[in-house]
Amino acid sequence: MGTPARALASAGMRKGICLLALLGGLAGCGGAMRPEELARSIETLASAAAEGALVADGAAEDRTKNTFVRSHSRELGEAVEHEAEKLSDASATGEVAADKADAVDLADRISAALGQLQTAPDDRAAAHRAGQALRRLADEATRLAQGG
User: Fold this and answer.
1) By three-state DSSP, how is residue 86 classified?
2) I need a labelling partner for 57 at 20 to 30 A (CA). Which of 16, 30, 82, 113 fits?
3) Which of these, 132, 136, 63, 147, lies nearest to 98 by C-alpha position?
């Protein structure tokens, strides 16, 4: 009885080692973030900021319902935060690393402006300021995505 048990344990151990090797290999597959990956991520930030500016304009001009401003700002903010998390988790080297850090900072500022809209969708003056900030941030993100 000792021999079959030992054989099963040995087979189970080999499977476990193979699984660990496979998972270890998969974890290292991604490599450093490439410039085009970073650009796509930054373009997502620019898009969210531009869309947020449109929502802010509607709120500032009192032509958009507060519930829409609040919910859409939340959705955009969640998308921006998700992008920031992906950027933070990605490894990068050289100029890509510096641009990645700038993109994470940009995402934080976009998220803050969207948060203002979400928190006080009926404050027209704050919506106007948020819209201006989001337009500037969208422009900044576009420049960063284009490498400058």
Assistant:
1) helix
2) 82
3) 147
Is pTM beyond 0.90 here?
Answer: no
d(CA 105, CA 136): 14
Each domain of the chain, given as residue ranges in start order, spans 1-30, 34-145
The pair of three-digit structure tokens given for residue 35, joined into one six-digit string: 């410039």
Separation of alpha carbons 75 and 97, rounded Å: 27
Listed in order, strand segments (DSSP E) in the chain are none
How do the residues of the chain divide into helix, strand and coil, expressed in percent and rounded to 5?
Answer: 85, 0, 15
Which two structure tokens, joined as six digits, stand for 109? 């500022």
Give the span between the Cα atoms of 117 and 112, in whole angstroms: 9
